[in-house]
Amino acid sequence: MRADSILFPTESGLYCPEGGFHIDPLRPVERALITHGHSDHARSGHGAVMATRETLDIMRLRMGPDFAASTQIADGPTRIGGVTVSFHPAGHVLGSAQIAVTPDRGPKIVVSGDYCRAPNPTCLPFEPVPCDVFVTEATFGLPVFRFPEPLTQAAKLLASMAEFPDRQHLIGAYALGKAQHVISLVREAGYAAPIAIHGALKTLCDYYIGQGVDLGELIPATADEVPAQLVIAPPSAFASLWVQRFRDPVIGFASGWMAVRARARQRGVELPLIISDHVDWPSLTATLTELAPSEVWVTHGTEDGVIRWCELAQTPARPLRLVGYEDEAE
């Protein structure tokens, strides 16, 4: 059986006819397998959803209790129709998983979803899964993207706070995964004072804490006077009246895109922090080298750069060109 008959793109997303399911579908379908809780991968309205326990919890928190007609926790290899599926940690956000699809006869396919190889204390590390076909994201799929160690960026933030003790530091970070990652990095770097968080971050921060992720003391950034030098907020808050309560703040943003100086200037970012929950170019190519699949499928980003690398490595590769995915995580 050919790989492209086991799993192939449709208008609704990647579809497995042998199992009758889609992976991270773009629109409501009868059965969906979800890699993680970001809104460009996890949507409501499906008939049945299988995902990790954490991802199902996160979907309920973000979409309400009736986001799907039924749910099933991914727990070990599971038979669905004519294939076996299994979920493996992706290192992206809490509960994120790669999904392996193994037919009775034919190539094993692993769909990575979004993944990261850098250490992240807020989620399980990426698990290399041997496979015949590896579906890789390419969010930062160009050689220019080479990220520093995450703790160096936490040290950069703390150095700025020491240099400007009278200026509050407002750091933009997405609500699911990035905000908690930034907070945990700052704690790991030795910052013990209370950190203020925008109200839009509270529910997910509380959930992370409930799952054993130590974020230290968090206080609400809701009063007219916020008694904390470090404030974390979603990027959308920086375009609202909320930000006007801070006098002469240092504006920062945590993202892999901060490696591009023009992006930082466009956002008016004084303190760019290159912190990503995705693979950079060296990690992406190292993963492909480590797994050594017979074929690579590329999606979510700069597909052409990865395909060219695969050509030079004499590994067959093709773009999936899935339409409708955006990158909430960065």
Structural shape: globular
Largest sheet: 7 strands, mixed
Following the backbone from N to C, one meets helices and strands in this order, namely HEEEEEHEEEEEEHEHEHEEEHEHEHE
Q: What is the number of E strands?
A: 19
Highest-level CATH class of the largest domain: Alpha Beta
The N- and C-terminal alpha carbons lie at a distance of: 37 Å
Q: Rg from C-alpha positions?
A: 20 Å
Please mark out the parts with pLDDT under 50 across 5 or more consecutive residues, or reply none. none
Number of helices: 8
SS strand fraction: 25-35%
Would you tell me the overall average pLDDT?
94
Sheet with the most strands: spatial strand order: 7-8-9-10-11-18-19
Gross CATH architecture of the largest domain: 4-Layer Sandwich
The helix/strand class is: alpha/beta
Keywords: Exonuclease, Hydrolase, Ligase, Nuclease
GO molecular function, one term: ligase activity
InterPro entries: MBL, RibonucZ/Hydroxyglut_hydro, Xnuc_lig_assoc
EC number: 3.1.-.-
